[in-house]
What does this fold into?
Amino acid sequence: MPFDGLMTRAVTAELQNRIVMGKVDKIAQPEQDVVVFTIHTKTGNVRLLMSAAASHARVHLIENNPVNPVEPYSFCMLLRKYLTASRIVGVEQHSSERIMELSFESMNELGFNVSRKLIIEIMGKHSNIVLVDLESGKIIDSVKRVGFDVNRARQVLPGLKYVYPPLQEKIPFDEILTDQDGLEKLESAHDGKEVLGLISGIAPVYADQLASKDNRAEFMRETIKMAETGSGAPMAWFDEQGSPRDYYFTPLDALDTSFRRVEYGTLSECLEEYFSKKVTANQTLQKANDAMRRVNELLSKKYLKKKRLSEDLIEAENSDRYRLYGELLTANLGRFTQGMSKVDVLNYYTGETVTIPLDVKLSPSKNAQAMYKRYQKAKTAVKEKQVQLEENDAEIAYLESTAAFLQQACTVEEVENIKRELMDTGYMRPPRKAALRKKAAEPRPLEFVLESGLKVLVGRNNRENDRLTFKMSDKGDIWLHTKDIPGSHVLIKCGPAGCTDEDIREAAGIAAYHSKAQSSENVPVDYVPIRYVKKPQGAKPGMVIFTNNRTIYADPREGRSSK
It folds into this structure.
């Protein structure tokens, strides 16, 4: 759901009740395109967040105080100069557009009142925060400067007159109800697409809901009333994994049928939780993608190395012919001379004629010796290539498990822990600045509780897998892992009473969900008493061997429901 005109109207109404006549105490800019005001009001201090970020532009109050950079941005310094200690005298929405205006009054050095306006344009990638002098109507500065090379139709630069973004050729939602021709078109629209093309300031999902109503004008009137009076029910929708999917200040039927709905006391509470999770998810995805690219690069190299080693091994295993060639050449030294490129001799084992290639630079005896040397070298190569292949396969298994954990990471902290692990194992370079080399957080496996009340621990990366398996286990516990599939180590804390088959089945579903096969339906999961799980000397994090295991097939969807 974009932050549409109706949502802007609802937030404007909430801020009018909360911050008008408040005094600006502090101004911060935690990110390039995010500004936070601390405002002193009659009911206490509140924080107002304004974001011009392309993917999550919005305005609302927040509870948490964001971390600020060591060196403030220049726009932050400018806002502090002009707006610190000023009073907010108005909060308005421009027409039905996604534009909110905060009006400020303050005293200049000569003791005269000065009026300024902060205009927040919530328009996707064109979002901006602009400070305007009301007397001259000129731009003082903006969080994003828009020059002629970026937009020929409208520039946003210091010293220029502020001009509102061009209006769409639609009827504003607060005018449609008094426009007879517009009302007739609204009632005759076939679907949400036609409604969206008629009315400005509404989002597609709301247009679909409006189109599904019998009395569309009345439904729109009620929605506008809820936005202006704050009588709506702020809510957000989340998917099965808990990821934020949408938000609004009124119910939306299409979302209720697909996602889990959570209601909030205020619109700001709704927006703060929704966007904090959304931004965290975006940051997690970005950081995970950076690490995933490195892991995929390494895997590509390891796969290629495996292919070449396998080919070399096959070649080395077929080295018996060199021994045969050596024997046949030794038995037929009088049949050929130096300078010949090949010789045909009788294979006395099979009675067939064999053509043997020769080195023209070597004598007959030297050619025979060269064949024996190639045979001996190939025999040694078989052992060496086999060792190299096993080591390469171990690295592939480790990197594939790391890739699976990156795909499942839900927080920036989880991704950072995986990246530190890759640095410690030499697969990624550590940051150059010592300040960025933070100490890895103490491993904290996920915890679940089975229907029987037993606790289940799940590793979120290979270091947590090791800690869970060898530091947090007791001898009566049951260990689980997807069979030949990268995934988490899972541990059932059985206690003195032990585990039932139902406990193992339920835990197997959790193991299947926390694996690379979580989108499958029937996943094999090995389970074994913890005493049979060992870690080979020198093995990489998370790599173990086990015996006496049994296999059960589980549905990852059952593990998802345990979250």
